[in-house]
Amino acid sequence: MDDDPAEAHGAALDRYDIAILGALQRDARLSNAELASRIGLSAAPTWRRVKWLEEQGYITGYRAEINRRKIGLGVLAFVRVDADRNNAEATQALEAAIRAMPEVVACHYISGAGTFELQVVATDLDAYSRWAMEVLFRLPNVKDVHTSFSLGEVKAGAAWPLSHVRGR
Fold first, then answer.
1. Would you call 143 helix, strand, or coil by DSSP?
2. For the chain, does the N or the C end have fewer beta carbons within 10 angstroms?
3. Vertex 99, ends 21 and 147: CA angle to 5°?
4. Quick one: which of 155, 45, 71, 102 has its CA closest to 19?
């Protein structure tokens, strides 16, 4: 067992790092002692490895997954936004406006038709409609908007797959 993550790591993760990532994705509330027990290391090297994974940007944060319906967000919409002009300044202004909207829980540049794909939550269809008219359609650089509504969640909040990561 190695105690120094800086010595243990080059550019590659090892089996302990991969095990830490998998365990924390399943339950980020694990104590360090429980995490150490699950991956087969003692507490001190496990703690150092977690800190190293955070410093290197593998672990970017911890949060609770909240049931959106329980807090009154019954509508999940997928919104494709087509930008009017694809120049850097206009796109940056649109990005900044999207980042500032709490209703937008995810945004991606996309290939094919459209510029951005948003995931938007609202309490109900009326609230979504008001938000779209008062906020979305008034964004800078928006040419067109196409919305699809989720009719049921099959899978959400999944952990990232790690089977392709080869540990040393």
1. strand
2. N
3. 95
4. 45
The residue behind tokens 């089996």 is 15
**Mind listing the pLDDT tens digit for each residue in 82-105?**
988 777 888 888 999 999 999 999
Tokens 């009719």 correspond to 151
Query: Domains in the chain, please, with CATH?
Result: 5-55 (1.10.10.10), 75-149 (3.30.70.920)
Scanning the structure block, which residue is given the tokens 């406006």? 97
Amino acid of residue 79 = V
**DSSP-assigned letter for residue 161:** P
Task: Look at the alpha carbons of 155, 156, 157, 158 in this order and tell me if their dihedral is positive or negative.
Answer: positive
What pTM was computed for the model?
0.82
The stretches of the chain forming alpha helices (DSSP H) are 5-8, 15-26, 32-39, 43-55, 88-99, 125-134
Report helix, strand or coil for 136. helix
Which letter does DSSP use for residue 134 in this model? Answer: H
Work out the mean pLDDT of the chain and round it to a whole number: 91
Instruction: Return the bridge partners of 107, or none.
Output: 118
- Report the C-alpha gap between 107 and 13 in whole angstroms: 29
Report the 10 Å Cβ neighbour count for 83: 19
Side-chain-side CA neighbours of 49 within 13 Å: the count stands at 27
